Structures are given as C-alpha cells and as structure tokens.
Amino acid sequence: MTTKQYQKRPTSEEAIKELKNLLGERFSTEVGDLKKHGNDKSHLPAFDPDGVAYPESTEEVAEVMKICKKYKVVVIPYGVGSSLEGHTSALFGGIHVDTSHMKKVIRFSKPDMDITVEAGLLKTELEKWLKEKDCFFGVDPGSESTVGGWCATGASGTMTVKYGTLRDNVLNLTVVLEDGRILKTANRARKSSSGYDLTHLFMGSEGTLGIITEITLKVYQIPKAVSAGSCCFPTVRNCTEAVTEIVQSSLGSLARCEFLNVKAIQAVNKLFETDYTEKPSLFLEFHGNTIEQVESVKDKLAEIVNNHKAEGFQFTSDEEKRKIMWKCRHSAYYASIKLRPKSKLLVTDVCVPISNLPNIIVETEEDFVKEGLSCPIVGHVYDGNFHVMCPIYDEEEVIIERLNSRLVKRAIKYEGTCSGEHGVGYGKMDYALQEHGEVFMDISKQIKKAFDPENRLNPGKIFN
Amino acid sequence: MTTKQYQKRPTSEEAIKELKNLLGERFSTEVGDLKKHGNDKSHLPAFDPDGVAYPESTEEVAEVMKICKKYKVVVIPYGVGSSLEGHTSALFGGIHVDTSHMKKVIRFSKPDMDITVEAGLLKTELEKWLKEKDCFFGVDPGSESTVGGWCATGASGTMTVKYGTLRDNVLNLTVVLEDGRILKTANRARKSSSGYDLTHLFMGSEGTLGIITEITLKVYQIPKAVSAGSCCFPTVRNCTEAVTEIVQSSLGSLARCEFLNVKAIQAVNKLFETDYTEKPSLFLEFHGNTIEQVESVKDKLAEIVNNHKAEGFQFTSDEEKRKIMWKCRHSAYYASIKLRPKSKLLVTDVCVPISNLPNIIVETEEDFVKEGLSCPIVGHVYDGNFHVMCPIYDEEEVIIERLNSRLVKRAIKYEGTCSGEHGVGYGKMDYALQEHGEVFMDISKQIKKAFDPENRLNPGKIFN
C-alpha cells in the first residue's frame, strides 16, 4: 500500500499558547503523547497530531473549540484509539480532543432504565458501574473502547440480536459544534417525532460534524436466567445455513449467535489451550426471566442445527462454561495475531442480508485460500456481519488489500455494506463510495459543509 | 386561533403546462381535487395546493421535481392526508405530489424478512399482502395511512413495545431530491456503519428534505400464539403506576400496553355498545411462539396489577375477544368525535420518560377538568406516549390551545417531547422550538438549506 501524501494544516504557535493557557498541563505537545495518539488499532500508517487537549467537561470542550475556530485549527476527537480504519489519524495535523478525563456518570434512572455518561467512559467502567445496579448495556462492543467512540463509529456488538445496535440504544447526545455551541440532540423520551433526527445523524459521523461529549443510553436489567449453546458443522455452508434457519425461527430469547471458522477455532484453542473441535462452529446465548424460559428453546435449536448436520451440540446454564466460551470469542483479535508472531492485524467488516451469508462466507474463504492465505473468520452472523482477521506481514499487505477489495465488491453485489460496525475512517473511503455512489456522497458533503464550513472537524474521513 | 397569513408563491402557467405535458390527466388542477388535498385530519385551517401530480414511479417523481426546479415551484408530498399537524397544507401554494398511484410491492424476501414497497401503499394493503406470506409489519400505526407518510412523519404505533418505532424498522429509503436526483440512503444489510445515517435523517423530515418514494421495511412472522389481558383501576395513578412496574419487569412477550381513561372507555362503550367497566384501564397483548409461552406471563402480570389495586383482571387467548378489544382501542379517534356531534378533533401527542407518566397524566386530567373539559385520553403507555382526544367546537379552540400549550410545557419539564409520533407540521412549530431550543433549530435550518437551497420542499413546516 502506498501512503498518500497529505498537505499539513499547521497548528499555529498562538493557538497552542492559548490552549495551554486554558488547560495548563492538560494540553500536551509532548512527543511520546503525540506518537501514542497518531496510531490506532488498524494496519494503516500513523499520523500524529500537533497537540492533545484533555478537557474535563462539555463546557471545556466548547472553550477548546472556540480557540480552534479562532485560529482555524483542525480538531479530531479521541477516545482510546481502538478504531480499525484510521478514524483518529491526524492526516492534516491539528489537535486531538482526548476524552479520557471525561468519565463521569451524570445521571441514572432505574425506573426509566437509562443512563447519561460522559464520552470518555470505558466499556469496562460502564459495565462495572451498571452491574452494581443489577443492570447492563445490551450492545456489548467487542474491545475496550469508549462510549463516545461507539457513538462516533456507529458500533455494535455480539448482543445486537436481542438488544440492537448502538444506533438503537442511544436516546440523546450532547455535542459541541465547530464554533463551540453546545447542542442537545433530543431528550429522555423513548421515542419522538419532533424535528430532525440529529441523534442518528451524529451516530457514525466519526467526528466530522461535531464532538460528542455526553450520551444517554438505554440500559437493561441483567437477565435472571442465561443459557448457552454450541455446536460445530462439517462445512461452513452447513453452519451458515443453520444460522439462516435460526434467524427465521425467531427464538425470542436468543441474545448472541456467533460464528467461528476452523482457523478461528484453531487460533482460540492455541491461545487458551481449549479443546473445541476444529470445525466451523456456532456459539449461542439465550437471555430470559427464568431458567425454564431460556431452556425451552433447547429442543427447537437442536432440531434446527441437526437438520444441518451439527456435531457435538451442547447446551448449558453453567456460568463458568459460558464465561470461557465468550472469553475465547472476545479474544479472537489477539488469538489471530498470536497465530503469526510479529504480524499486524487487518480486520475486514462486511454485512449482508442473512440469506446471502452462506454464499459470501464460502466464497470468501475460497478466495483467501486461493491467494495462499487462510485466516480466522468470526461473525455476529445473526445480523449477516462477519470479520476476516488477517494477521499479516508488510509484504502481504498488497495481497490482503486485493482480497478485501474483492470481499467488499462481493458484499455490495449481495446488497450489503462495506462496513457493518467499524466505520469508514480513511481506510474505507473508496469502498464507501463504491457502496453508496455519487449522489449519496455529494449530499453527505453538503451536510458536512452545513456543520463544518471550514472543514476543520476530522477532515479526510468518510469522504475526501 | 388566529390564522397566520402566508405570502403565496404562485405556480406559473408554464410550470402547470409542462407538468400536464408530462403526466396528462395525472396532473390535476380540478377544484374538488385541490380542496380535498388542502385538508388533513387536524383541526388546523385548510390550504389548497395549485395542482396535484399523480406520478407512477420514482423516475416520474424525479421528472416532476426537475420541472418544479426549473420553474421554482413549491412541492409537497401527499399520502392520504391523515396527518394531524397540518403537514401537507400548502401554506405557500405549490403542488402536491400525491403517491396514490405508487402502491407496488417491489420485492420481498421471506428469508431476510424484509419488503420494499412504494410510498403510496396503504396500511391495510400492506397488511393484506403480508398476511398471505404469514408475515406482518410490527409497528401497527393507528389509522389508515401510507408507508411513505409513516416514514415522513416518524410514526409509531401500538406495538412499539415489542417491535420498535418506524425509525427502528426501516432499512433503506429511495428519495427524490429537490433537483430530481435519486438517492438511495442504504442497502438491505440489517446494520451498517458506512457513511452518514441518511435513512434516519429522512425519517420524520416531513417532506422538507426530499420526497420518499420507496421504502424497505423489516417485517415479522405472524406470532404463533397471542394472548391478551385487560383490567381497570380505581384511579389513573394506580393504573399508570402499574404500567411503570410492568415496564421494569421486562415481560419478554409483551407486544401492546395501552391505556384508556374513564372518558375513553365511556366513548368506546357508547360507540360499540360494549360494557367495559368505566374506570382507568389497561389493554395488553402478548406475542410468542407457543401458547405456554404467552400464558406464562399471566401470574406475574396479575401480581403486578393487583399490587396496584386492579379490578376485573382478565387474560385470554380467545381471538374474537382480542379483536373486539383492539377494534375498540383503534376506534378511539372516532369514538371521541361521536361524544360531541359535529365537533372536530384536536389530538395531543406528548411522550415522557416512563417514571414521569403517572404525574403527567394525573396533572393533565386535572388541568382539563379545571377548564371545564373532560376528554378521552389514550396512550401507548409503555413508551410514555399518550394522546388527549379533544372533540371541540370552534369557540373552544382557544381553551384547547391553552391546555395543549400547558401540556407540552409539562412534557418538556418532565424531560419529554412535544410530539411522540405525530410530527411537527406547522401546528407544533412553536412547541418544537420550546423543546429543542435555538441551537437545534439553527443547525436544522442549515441541514434544510443543504438539501433545499431554494426552500421549495414543504416550506413552513417543522421550523419557520
């Protein structure tokens, strides 16, 4: 991959001075800090910012934005840099607004089952806080990341089957606009038809329209009963066809339905010394109010998977076994890297209508094998979303780009999307254009201009 | 209510000639037709358009839009005129694009449980079509209306509890932009994080950003088992507090949870000669795969409502009894008008967080009684959404406006919205501004300008 050249838009000395005046030590130009912020978890090259601001409140973000407007400084919001398509890279320089000092829980209502938090709160921190209230956040994004990052990316997770995506679980955002004005996109009502849906417009806007600082999320009671099932199949086609039948059977309590191909199972077995049968597999989970309820699906589920030649069907309410299974699934990223020492990981992320899932996964596996690469594939397959985890060395990058390009073409052919949950960043701009076409991109640019006339908010992301 | 004066933006003779050339008899300037299109189901004054176009396809809508651009003609999309806030009123003149010739089912996939239809398809037509495939559309908006109208308004319905609002059930829209370009907002994947969420931006945009011509909806299998429950309570507070406890108990199979106050029950009893006890009541419905599943909630539900002094708790899987109950609930609009011969109906529509529902309903009933009016109240109370159905005579309009204004203030105080599902139109513009404030409205106008620089798409709606 040849690295594109970007014309830097330098951050002036006066701007830096004024930001230091505002934030003191919470504005950093220390080289180590800049280096850390230039990188994310993608395979893409790093671009360091000129400075990093660590505001402590929405109001302080607003003050930062006003200074940046005054000096025409480029601004990029930053959570923990867990993005996979270069979302936070400072392609043109500018400053990062790092939300790691914004972790407050602002309010919570158990009767209303909603919580308002600051953007920098981490997944593990939110989980811990909610657990004490016997609640949890249903979406369960895969990696350690911030609530603000989830919203900016339009993320989802393993439990989308039952609880929806991030987009379905945000009631209200507080956003700082490019000129420092503070916008509330909605209120706490569960639904509204009053005015434009600005909440969803910001979800997945990747910092290009404003900086999300506070988020009101729907939360859920921890299910009183949970059971889990797993099985494997002779072929990927058997496995994915079983999934399409599971989807059509609308098993009400299904909360997770995850696919792992042979290579993914091998990677997991290697990392954790587990002994999962090395065949295409499904990991499933059911949530309900009573054990009877979650176990009532067992026979129907067994019938479906057995129709598709399932092997080793297991069904358990044992918490320890479940925990191990999900630890394995959630560690697929690291397990994949461990397959090839010192490799870096490229993670693909397409999503197609469920009826096209068997074809696209089979064709993708074949395509990778043809190019001499055999990679782990995992997927939130109930949604038709899956990831090829490609641990690669530099010299293989060109092959993987070719494979990913063909994968995206295949997803578009199958009426799907080039990004199910990781966003566009600058890694997938060409694919997003292929998927949506010129009219979509043109109107998107018009919207961008309405919010950010000077193109200072995370420029060079989503579209050129 | 004093009628505001609007400066007409006349539709030129050349424009009308060219539209007639394009559509022949499907472009009407017949007075009866214009009169019919000037009115909706609201209490607001009528504003007739200068002409009505009846295109037969997205491409024909695009041709109409090009002509309108050429001659700077105002354009307003029109379904069946069922809106309740004057959404389709031609305040400034211009033409209606009536979608009643666009009713095709374009595609359907049972494995993917989705359907693509043209905007003019009616609720009853969609229901009939889907029933033959053993499917239904989960949202169930209350009145006869078009799929395009649902989307443009951001509607919802009685089954939002289980199946979500319209916003949760649309995968993709085809929209004709102000210059005649055709935009597809997404594809058929169940989720995506590729690019701005234009689908949701158009949901509830009330024709101000473009004309929705085709819609891909999620559909659902007709539940194999359905049961229904009903009971009444000594007071509104008992009843609504029972609702908040039902919400918190997350009864998985709950699909409907509807409130009717004493006056609403009286109106229904009068219209249908039913004998529901004339007390604040709940009508509930449960959907599942088996009778055992839907009946398994009975004891828990009885326990909850009995905690709140319920009377006459009934629970049945009998289809006939259910049908009568929902016919009564769905006819509340007509039943309310029938209470006062020759009255017209004003329907309020606020939505608040569920914990604030008991207070707001009690206070609202008291406020109405104070003004000498006692009106039916019905609500999709699981969402915190309710409607006062006010059958009024002209001279009472000023009282009702006062009551509605106080109701909206109350909803905003309780962190709710001025419109749960009916939209803003021109009837609620002041309330939307009160709810959202200047920054929200200012950025909304910037978006509007990006889509519609000449302000020709349904001008004077949502904001001035």
UniProtKB/TrEMBL annotation, chains A, B:
Cofactors that this protein relies on: FAD
Tagged with keyword Oxidoreductase: yes
Keyword annotations from UniProtKB, A to Z: FAD, Flavoprotein, Mitochondrion, Oxidoreductase, Transit peptide
GO biological process: lactate catabolic process
Subcellular location: Mitochondrion
Gene Ontology cellular-component annotations: mitochondrion
Enzyme Commission no: 1.1.2.4
FAD-binding PCMH-type domain residues: 45-222
Protein name as it appears in the record: D-lactate dehydrogenase (cytochrome)
InterPro entries xref list: FAD-bd_oxidored_4_C, FAD-bd_PCMH, FAD-bd_PCMH-like_sf, FAD-bd_PCMH_sub2, FAD-linked_Oxase-like_C, Oxid_FAD_bind_N, Vanillyl_alc_oxidase_C-sub2
